[in-house]
């Protein structure tokens, strides 16, 4: 199953709703998606995700809260949580306490990222957690994040400045895609995740020629 397409679509859905374009899926030991979540911090109405309309309505938290009871023949330690952006301190703590032992993330969060908590204290070193960064997911998230430049809230806590220092090339791509009306198509719902990924990959390929 193409988890990246699923996650990017969740990012796009969040973008369309006025929230940060961050998405997350949880996959069981058989490779099936059993839970999804997206950022919903700027939404006042319930749209399928249990946590919304406040600063803790993060993608990972929504995916974790939406999980059903673990079947007797499954081990949650075999589950994998895929998230488009590095989990914050709150979300990494929730992931750690959930029993999930595998984290795959995309874009680094230079302000609120919480993966550096792992191993810092005795408690956060007891469980073995496998942490992997997915470069394709990183690229897609960083380009989507570049569309946020006109949002007032993005400047809080130095998030936007840190993003620009870490992902200047992806921001330039986002600006060009905005000029090419890709951003407008995402907001209008006339472009899906698969199409967006293809456009970004083609754009990057053309730049490298």
UniProtKB/TrEMBL annotation:
Keywords: Metal-binding, Zinc
Key word Metal-binding present: yes
UniProt GO MF annotations: hydrolase activity; zinc ion binding
Highest taxon of the lineage: Bacteria
Pfam families: dCMP_cyt_deam_1
Annotated InterPro entries: APOBEC/CMP_deaminase_Zn-bd, CMP_dCMP_dom, Cytidine_deaminase-like
The CMP/dCMP-type deaminase domain, residue ranges: 1-118
This protein's record includes keyword GTP-binding: no
Classification via PANTHER family: CYTOSINE DEAMINASE FAMILY MEMBER, TRNA(ADENINE(34)) DEAMINASE, CHLOROPLASTIC
Protein's name according to its UniProt entry: CMP/dCMP deaminase zinc-binding
Source species: Pseudothermotoga lettingae (strain ATCC BAA-301 / DSM 14385 / NBRC 107922 / TMO)
């Amino acid at each position: 199953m193409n988890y990246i397409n699923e996650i990017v679509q969740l990012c796009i859905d969040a973008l369309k709703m006025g929230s940060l374009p961050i998405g997350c899926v949880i996959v069981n030991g058989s490779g099936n998606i059993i839970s999804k979540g997206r950022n919903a911090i700027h939404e006042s109405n319930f749209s399928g995700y249990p946590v919304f309309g406040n600063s803790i309505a993060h993608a990972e938290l929504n995916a974790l809260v939406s999980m059903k009871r673990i079947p007797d023949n499954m081990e949650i330690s075999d589950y994998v949580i895929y998230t488009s952006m590095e989990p914050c301190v709150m979300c990494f703590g929730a992931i750690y306490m959930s029993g999930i032992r595998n984290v795959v993330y995309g874009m680094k969060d230079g302000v609120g990222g919480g993966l550096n908590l792992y191993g810092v204290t005795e408690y956060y070193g007891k469980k073995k957690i496998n942490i992997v960064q997915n470069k394709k997911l990183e690229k897609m998230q960083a380009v989507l994040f570049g569309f946020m430049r006109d949002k007032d809230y993005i400047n809080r806590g130095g998030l936007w400045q840190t993003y620009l220092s870490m992902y200047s090339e992806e921001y330039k791509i986002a600006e060009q895609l905005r000029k090419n009306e890709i951003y407008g198509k995402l907001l209008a719902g006339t472009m899906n995740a698969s199409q967006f990924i293809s456009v970004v990959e083609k754009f990057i390929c053309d730049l490298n020629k």
